[in-house]
Amino acid sequence: MIKSKIHRNWYLWFFFLVFCEFGILFGLIKAIIKKTNNIHENNESFIPIIILVIIILALLLVIKDFKYVIIDKQRNSLKYYSILRPLGNTLKLDDFDNKIKTSETSVRGEYEVVYLVKKGYTAFKISGLFYDNLKELDSSIKLKRIYSYKFNLKLYLQLLFTGKIRIEEE
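Below the sequence we write its predicted structure tokens.
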């Protein structure tokens, strides 16, 4: 059994995002209560709202992608726990056709990502942003890797935000 090892730095980054979000939200609520700034008339008060929306979107993307992964080689299965699935979910690796490996870029830099492909579509994401042992996790998944597939900026953004694209081999 191979268990994911989570980066220590990721915890700091996550709590920093949450702290910033609550700080900005608290400041906005305080301004509304005191009625010192009329939010609808003052353009400067939209800046904290825009920053809050960006931080919330970043936090939602992180929550969507963060999983604690356990790969059982004997059963050829992958079990994961996430904030969205706290009781866990088990996936049979035999149900997937292939895997692709790509890289993504964030504030913390570039990192590798492994996507499991099912019926021509990306179906599950294992992000190197969170794990120290991504290479070990990747090597334990015995699926054929697709090396050459159509990829462009539109597909990259779609993959980054939705996690699902159609993989067409070249």
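The helical segments are 8-34, 46-65, 134-140, 153-162.
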